[in-house]
Amino acid sequence: MTVRTRIAPSPTGDPHVGTAYIALFNLCFARKHGGQFILRIEDTDQTRSATDSEQAIFDSLRWMGLEWDEGPDVGGDFGPYRQSERKHIYGQYAEQLIETGHAFRCYRSAEELDELRAGLKEQGINRALKPYDLELPKDEVAKREAANAPYVIRMNVPMEGKVEIDDMLRGVMELDWNLVDAQILLKSDGMPTYHLANVVDDHLMEITHVLRGEEWINSAPKHKLLYEYFGWEMPVLCHLPLLRNPDKSKLSKRKNPTSILYYQRMGYLPEALVNYLGRMGWSMPDEREKFSLAEMLEQFDIQRVSLGGPIFDVEKLSWLNGLWIREDFNTEQLADRLIDWALNRQNLLQVLPHAQQRMETLSDFAPLASFLASGTLPLNSDSFAGLKLDEEQLKQVLQFTLWRMEALRQWDRDAIFEELKTLATSMDIKLKDFLVPLFIAIAGTTASFSVMDSMVLLGPDMSRARIRHALNTACGEIGKKQLKKLEKAYSAL
Fold it and tell me: What percentage of the chain's residues is helix, strand, coil (to nearest 5)?
């Protein structure tokens, strides 16, 4: 048997360090066993998937030295490797499940589903929706079918009992069918959900081992059931521990930068980032902290993974990055890295059109552009003193802008300006006053060139990180109650 592993990221935002973490372990496992590592794009969510995000996944993983044997950009014998290009495949398997009595068409509306869930809750019943709950009278089904009402295809699941899931690291896990819902397999637009596409694609691509995050443990019963329904052999499962913030919560961008592009833009070395991710729940036989990808590949043993939640600590990453800079580069090599990172001609040609109008001597350039080659800016509460906004308005401007920028798909000057102008108008704040705290957040000063141009030059990942840093600096960490209040005000705009 040839070992075949895969990762299947969704192109719906900045490439996540969690994706790189899972990719690293899949790559190491495949290489250790002389197998292949596959990259598949899970773009079933057509409203959120973006070509730019897909390319960012390719670029960021390659920057880290994580190469795949098959994928959308390199081809292979099991393509296509984008789910959107495999849409015609999934429908026939969903129909097959209906024919064998393992799935059904569900015409229930969203409102009806909410009523059903509320009804169970009122009765004190704590379980997922089952096919029994979702059934409609035959005449009602015929009526909706005749009216071409939208429907989804759902899988049949047991009402009660236990299911055993075998895991490489955890052994046999026993899960309760009571908590497993009648999962949607095919959406009303004909696109599959993750669960159907995942099972079908893994089977057709002959994936032998699925190494994924432990957040997928609760989905394993559905996947095992689908393999049984189809009569296919299930890949070996291995659920890796989740990356966590220093406070032990799940790694999230609210508490830690999660974009690979952020770390690249900050000037972290790819070798150090791979090294650090390799230490997330795994260790070298001699317990040393600093090692290369080649050394990890040589010594890799999946059984050395610890199930304790690994802590992603940026300070520890910075310490490790410093070791790499001091111990593995001579001055010429470090000069080359600095040039490649920020001091290259392409970057200069992007910055100079904005800086040139403000320059009288060449020495003016560095102060004007230094914020573009900086990481986290040295802001404090005094940085936002003297603004024409009160504390609540400042908090709203920064938080609402952050939410708008996180949702923005097209990252260019006009798109950013339009979002900021619309937001300022809806908040009844003069645009000039609205932009001042953003100048400070992005450039550290109001005496800079256009904040929109600055955000384009910095890129989405660093721009969002700086706005988030400014929000925490100016307003402190926002608690759950404050966040709900802000969300309500944001929704009302």
Answer: 55, 10, 35
| Structure tokens belonging to residue 194 | 């993750």
Contacts of 97 (CB under 8 A, 6+ apart): 103, 153, 155, 185, 229, 230
pTM of the predicted structure, to 2 decimals? 0.90
8 Å CB contact between 394 and 467: no
Q: Is 207 exposed, middle or buried (0-12, 13-18, 19+ CB in 10 A)?
A: buried
Burial status of residue 114 (CB atoms within 10 A of its CB: 0-12, 13-18, 19 or more): exposed
Residues of the chain with pLDDT under 50: none
Looking at residue 29, its pLDDT comes to 98
pLDDT at position 64, please? 97
Contacts of 314 (CB under 8 A, 6+ apart): 256, 257
Positions marked active-site? 253
437 closest CA partner among 482, 493, 370, 377: 377
Residue ranges of alpha helices (H) inside 345-409 are 345-355, 365-369, 391-407
> What pLDDT does residue 414 have?
96
Could you please report the per-residue DSSP string of 264-281? Answer: HHHT--HHHHHHHHHTSS
Half-sphere exposure of 267 (CA within 13 A, CB side): 16
Q: Do the beta carbons of residue 104 and residue 153 sit within 8 Å? A: yes
Q: Is 160 exposed, middle or buried (0-12, 13-18, 19+ CB in 10 A)?
A: exposed
Please report the pLDDT score of residue 46 as a whole number: 67
Strand partners, 16: 259
**What are the pLDDT digits (tens) for 398-454?**
999 999 999 888 899 999 999 999 999 999 999 999 999 999 999 999 888 899 999
pLDDT at 53: 87
- The residue written with tokens 């990055």 in the block is 321
Q: Note the Cα 64 to chain centre separation in Å.
A: 17
